[in-house]
Design a protein that fits this description.
Layout lengths: L9 H5 L4 H11 L4 E3 L8 E8 L2 E8 L2 E5 L1 H4 L6 E9 L1 E6 L2 E6 L2 E6 L4 E5 L3 E9 H4 L3 H7 L4 E2 L3 H16 L5 H23 L7 H15 L8 H7 L4 H9 L5 H18 L8 H7 L5 H12 L12
Antiparallel strand pairs: 1-4, 2-3, 3-10, 4-9, 5-8, 5-10, 6-7, 6-9, 8-11
Length: 317
């Protein structure tokens, strides 16, 4: 009989699922994956976690199994996500971009959902995972590409600081208030970015292309509340053509307008879930973050996050 770690909460033990139930839970919680195991009749697993804005925080405990992100599952609609995993117990192998790395308890790794990968858990495992859009990482493409499917040490250096934070976040995500979870998830994103930079070092050459991209992102963040922020204005401010600006973001797997919209939505998410803004109306928050039409904002917000803006409002005292 499988002996799950003592750190699995009693309510999670009660939720341990047979293989088909676990496979369905994985399909609902993350990007499309093929889940297989050699002994489905003996399999048991549990997946818990929360969605926070554009980020997901997950905790997984399961017997040996494998997940595969195949070309067919990616299809013509890549989702532009990065997954960062902490292996807290057990052993596994990560395969992506013609690299493969063996992982032991305490190791970490990162992989890109836009390209095929396999995570093969060779024994009973316990894992913590954070998943976020690549555009939020704000690292040059070459840094992310050189990081995938590599073993990242969680016992020394920056890894020794990042690992316990992500583990605690995943274990306690269910109990956190929405606004608190969102802030802590953003901190996790910053920690992962710092770790990946330290792991791989800077890109061999800091190109004018990447320098301009960072300047444009800083400009967008500084002017998100202005409704007339658009590609034409951004291009003119930075003395480039609109076509070149679009190419700049195309290399990151996104568009200028998508980045503006998503960052506005993230700011609205922060404000809507913050008790300090409980007295403000949804319309006021939308208008203050560059949205002109409250009805359009509500539809866009629901489509993006899967919930209505009013759902996030904290109860007034």
């Amino acid at each position: 009989m499988t002996q799950f770690p003592s750190t699995v909460h009693d309510d999670h033990r009660a939720a341990l699922l047979p293989f088909e139930g676990y496979r369905s839970a994985v399909a609902d919680a993350v990007v499309a994956l093929e889940v297989i195991t050699e002994h489905p009749e003996d399999f048991r697993g549990v997946l818990t976690g929360r969605t926070s804005g554009d980020m997901q925080v997950l905790a997984i405990t399961a017997t040996a199994h494998a997940v595969h992100r195949t070309p067919a599952l990616i299809g013509g609609n890549p989702e532009h996500y990065v997954k960062f995993t902490v292996l807290e117990q057990g052993g596994a192998m990560i395969v992506q971009d013609e690299r493969e790395s063996r992982l032991q308890a305490g190791d970490m790794t990162v992989y890109d959902t836009d390209r095929p990968y396999s995570l093969i858990c060779t024994e009973d495992v316990r894992m913590s995972i954070v998943m976020f859009p690549k555009s939020m990482l704000e690292l040059p493409g070459p840094v992310v590409a050189r990081s995938t499917a590599t073993r990242i040490d969680g016992a020394s250096g920056i890894g020794a600081m990042v690992r316990p934070y992500l583990t605690s976040l995943a274990q306690q995500a269910d109990d956190l208030q929405t606004h608190t979870l969102h802030r802590l998830s953003r901190n996790a994103l910053d920690l992962v970015s710092t770790l990946l930079e330290a792991q791989c070092g800077p890109a061999p050459v800091t190109s004018t292309h990447q320098t301009l991209l960072l300047r444009v992102l800083e400009y967008i963040d500084a002017h998100l509340d202005e409704p007339d922020l658009n590609p034409a204005r951004i291009a003119a401010t930075h003395f480039v053509s609109v076509r070149y600006l679009h190419l700049l973001f195309s290399d990151q797997g996104t568009t200028v307008s998508t980045v503006i919209r998503n960052r506005r939505l993230e700011r609205c998410y922060d404000a809507l879930s913050d008790p300090l803004h409980a007295q403000r109306s949804v319309t006021s928050i939308a208008l203050d973050n560059g949205f002109l039409d409250p009805a359009h904002f509500s539809r866009t917000f629901r489509t993006h996050f899967g919930v209505s803006p009013s759902t996030l409002r904290p109860r007034r005292a």
